[in-house]
Design goal:
485 residues; alpha+beta; 2 domains; 5-stranded antiparallel beta sheet; 16 helices; Serine/threonine protein phosphatase PstP; metal ion binding; hydrolase; membrane
Length: 485
């Protein structure tokens, strides 16, 4: 059975930004959202370039390998971005996210880079089908922060991947289409300010994609609308439906010169809120050109300086994360020797390492100096190197402790009568020889291992004393041996 898309797309600059850096394309075969970044102009250009590079996918039945078609389109967009920067060096640093769906009537290819999102509503259950390429999402994946902490994290908008003229492998996946499926593509201007629960309610209750798209934009504006907001809502319907789509492809946002930007009439709560405050980069009152020229120049320099700082911070974060992920060290977890991925450092509550694998060694089985080294962490440049360090611990193991059964058995010389023992030939004396009062003084008074003649217990005491003395001289802080398996 062949399915069709009925879709609606909306893009709004929000209540704070003076321009829209998002771009959107929605057609019978291709749905795509791009969220540009890189300054007042760079973000617009980046999202436009990428949408222009992939929109040809909507013109023909993709057939064949849809994921390969998406990959090639992304590569084309990357090349186009690089050429634009080569021709306009002042745009260096611009980039864009991309979330796109390619449809062939039965199956859907999903392409994703960045923090724009795609959701699927199926059987009244909402599922996010893309994975955010953000610093905060990486912390979530590693279990270092909770969902609640992520929602207020100061770096939640820092993305780790974007299309910026350098090669990027997009996340690609295939999905089977079903009649009644409803898809949502959106920029983070929606998902960062409207909860997933609210999004799900709107998608379930709206009779059409157009109604759902309008409501989602309104909810983002009610939340303050600090960012550009772009959404596509698309339903999969069967060929017996009276209406298969909303018509021709829709191009909006920066790519469509904001032709779909709604005028603010003040007849909604969000609209009335917008009328009460000026945009950040628009003056609240009119002034003559001479008065405005100096403040605008100062503001422009501050914006450029801020942008440079953000780019540097993001670059450092990316470089730092790549370095941390490539490092390993051998350390301890409780009583065990283990291998960690990362560096042995903590920044506040965030640990820059995670458990990679456990070993068969226990810390107490190692020589004292090696125990200290392992507790302090033995650095390695790769997992293979870390495993080699662990293998070398065989040379640092304590000797096995003697078998208790063997060590406690009396030796013939200790148990048997001494030739010099006058009571050795008297069987009745053997029971009283051990506890005699004369043996103990002889054993303790002599600094040597020599025991009083005929006192087997004294010989044992002297032997124990000598053994204890030797053990003390070896150091009490580490055991002299390790237990066998």
């Amino acid at each position: 059975m062949t399915l069709y898309l009925r879709y609606a797309a909306r893009s709004d600059r929000g209540l704070v930004r003076s321009n829209n850096q998002d771009s959107v394309f929605a057609g019978p075969r291709l749905l795509a959202v791009a969220d540009g970044m890189g300054g007042h102009v760079g973000g617009e250009v980046a999202s436009k370039v990428v949408i222009a590079a992939i929109e040809y996918l909507d013109e023909d039945d993709p057939g064949g390998d849809m994921l390969e078609a998406l990959r090639q389109a992304v590569d084309t967009g990357t090349d186009d971005l690089r050429h634009v920067v080569d021709d306009n060096p002042d745009l260096d640093g611009m980039g864009t996210t991309l979330t796109a769906l390619l449809f062939n009537g039965k199956r859907i290819g999903v392409c994703h880079v960045g923090d724009s999102r795609a959701y699927l509503l199926r059987d009244d259950e909402l599922t996010q089908i893309t994975h955010d390429d953000t610093f905060v999402q990486a912390l979530l994946d590693e279990g270092r922060i909770t969902e609640e902490e992520a929602s207020v994290h100061p770096q939640r908008s820092v993305i780790l991947r974007a299309l910026n003229g350098m090669h990027v492998d997009p996340d690609l996946s295939m999905r089977e289409g079903r009649p009644g499926d409803r898809y949502l593509l959106c920029s983070d201007g929606l998902s960062s300010f409207v909860s997933a629960e609210r999004i799900g309610k709107v998608l379930r209750s709206s009779a059409s994609p157009s109604e759902a798209a309008d409501q989602l934009i309104d909810f983002a504006l009610r939340a303050g609308g600090p960012d550009n907001i772009t959404v596509i809502v698309a339903d999969l319907i069967d060929d017996n439906a009276p209406e298969s789509s909303d018509g021709a492809p829709v191009v909006d946002g920066a790519a469509g010169n904001n032709q779909g930007q709604r005028e603010n009439t003040g007849d909604t709560p969000a609209g009335r809120a917008a009328l009460l405050r000026p945009r950040k980069d628009e003056p609240a009152e009119e002034a003559d050109d001479d008065e405005d020229s100096q403040p605008k120049g100062t503001l422009r320099r501050r914006l450029i300086a801020s942008l440079i700082a953000v780019v540097l911070i993001v670059g450092l974060l990316l470089a730092g994360r790549a370095y941390v992920g490539s490092q390993y060290f051998v350390g301890v977890d409780g009583a065990d020797v283990v291998i960690y991925n990362g560096v042995d450092t903590e920044i506040g509550p965030v640990k820059l390492y995670s458990l990679q694998e456990r070993t068969d060694y226990q810390v107490s089985d190692l020589e004292e100096a090696t125990q200290v080294d392992v507790r302090e962490g033995l650095s390695a440049g790769s997992l293979t190197e870390a495993r080699q360090i662990v293998a070398r611990l065989d040379d640092k193991l304590l000797p096995l402790c003697p078998d208790p059964a063997t060590s406690s058995a009396p030796s013939p010389s200790a148990a048997g009568p001494s030739a010099s023992d006058p009571g050795a030939s008297d069987p009745s004396a053997s029971g009283s020889a051990a506890p005699t009062d004369t043996a103990a003084p002889n054993a303790s008074a002599s600094p040597t291992d020599t025991a009083a003649p005929g006192t087997g217990s004294a010989a044992g005491s002297a032997s124990a004393s000598a053994s204890g003395s030797a053990s003390s001289s070896a150091g009490a802080s580490a055991p002299a041996c390790r237990e066998g398996a």
